[in-house]
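The protein record filed here.
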Amino acid sequence: MRIGIYDPYLDDLGGGEKYMMTIAECLAEKHEVSVFWDNLKDVQALTERFSLNFEKISFKKNIFTPETSFLTRFLTTREYDAVIFLSDGSIPLVSSKKLFIHLQQPLDQIDDSSWKDKIKHLRITKAFCNSEFTKSFNEKKLGAVKTVVISPPVSLLQKNIKKENIILTVGRFRVINVKVDDYKKQQVMINEFKKMVKDGLKDWKFVVATSIRNTEDSRFQEMIKSAKGYPIEFQINKTNNQLWDVYNRAKIYWHASGFDEDLVKNPEFAEHFGISTVEAMGSGAVPVVFNAGGQKEIVFDGKNGLVWNTLEELHTKTKELIHNKVRLEKMSQAARIRAKYFSKERFCEAMQQLVTE
């Protein structure tokens, strides 16, 4: 099969981009795969950030830009057996034999009220989401379109590194396609860790691993200043391999996306899946995560991690783990086992089946 792939956020270097480019990497083993993207510097950044292999993938002129005419897009996609499109709410009108739409978050923009939108929806072969959370919001808007869940792939890298008294969080600072400044709630977690230190926590460190385009961003600098004087360390724009060093050293993993947000009005502010949570679990870090979004599909409270609803619960449950080494170790082992479910092999099999069935 000849397959074309498009992700409008390819320059964002986030988990969604890793998902889409892993699709390309997987399918290229058996099919001819092209990715529609013009800036090869972004491609290089992706390979370095996520350790992806693009040797069997070709990169073509981006035909999904506003400057590209409908006729050019239509004629170009006629050459493909399938097009896989990451939707930002829009549905492309293409002439490939099959059209697969990927949805990574709840989207209000999906619409089939006009005759043009109805035609576009009729062209969709199947839609696939990254979690049941995402699927639950979008499938009703897609009407008769069959929608399935294919959980993201998580490549685990266990290193023979001794665990340290580290609480870790991993996430981008300010996500460009989500309209909330502290989407990953790094500042909330910094403030909470500072409270724990003031309440007597000793010999523990909080590590904030984050990626950011402009390290001089005033809000980012303010966040760094707020941590001064506390055992808080920032790891900025690290490669995937470098991140695994701290994953394997950490004992506890924090995640807070969605906290203090109106998730009825803005469900997209919750974590849509949680790749970093699975990566942490795969290294034996026990997740203590906010009870919303896709996190609830990964972490089973009291078994392979803990979930919280209030900052008081985050504080209390974290302290319980810190002071109960037996429970911490038991949950660490359970977390490792749970993380193996989200293997790259399972993901590739699911994608091969999707495009060929």
User: Anything to note?
Assistant: The chain has a mean pLDDT of 92.
